[in-house]
Amino acid sequence: MDVGTTGLLLKRAVVIKAVVTPRWKDEAQQQLQGQINQLDGQLQQLEMQGQRMISEIQRQSVQPGSPQVIQQVDNVQIQVNQKKSELLEQKNKILQQLQQVQTLEMEQEVNQGQIDSFCKVNMGDNLVQKMQVEILLRDGIVEKIRGEL
User: Fold this and answer.
1) How many Cβ atoms sit within 10 Å of the Cβ of residue 128?
2) Pair 136, 143: CB distance under 8 Å
3) Nearest Cα to 16, choosing from 101, 109, 114?
4) Residue 119: closest CA among 88, 78, 84, 147
5) Which regions form coiled coils (predicted)?
6) Which of 15, 49, 102, 130 could bridge across to 134 with cysteines, CB 3.0–4.6 Å?
């Protein structure tokens, strides 16, 4: 994007950080616990769907003990187990995040992500400084903006 002959308008990533406070910690733990509860629900639902599919295969088959039926049941069980492993892996990652949140010290700064913004650069500007901008939040409120605007 051109801003005339005096400079350019550039897009940059702005790092968002939060100060760990009791409120921030509670909200982070509640959010992670909610994700864990959701995954637990998905695991239960998956287990029930798998059992229903197996029961339906066995109910519809002429010979419940035939190799074809056993193969179909095994395939369903393999699919259920694969999906279950994925969900359990996600749950373990979230449990690790929850443990990390619990060990954070008050007033510590943690990364929350990033957003894009634009900045004007002119001849002679320090591009590195212009691109390094952070916003520091305390309980959702902007406390500091670090770097060159």
Assistant:
1) 8
2) yes
3) 114
4) 147
5) 25-107
6) 15
From 11, 131, 13, 134, select the one nearest 3 (Cα to Cα): 11
* Rounded-to-integer distance, Cα 54 and Cα 72, Å: 8
Q: Residue 28: exposed, middle, or buried by beta-carbon count in 10 A (0-12, 13-18, 19+)? A: buried
Tell me the pLDDT tens digit for each residue of 41-87.
999 999 999 999 999 888 888 777 788 888 989 999 999 999 999 99
Residue 72 to residue 74: CA distance in whole angstroms = 5
SS3 140: coil
- Starting at the earlier edge strand, list the strands of the sheet with 7-19: 109-122, 7-19, 133-138, 141-146
Tokens for 27?
A: 């909200």
pTM of the shown model = 0.75
> What is each CA distance from 100 to 17, 91, 104, 110, 136, in whole angstroms?
16, 14, 6, 11, 20
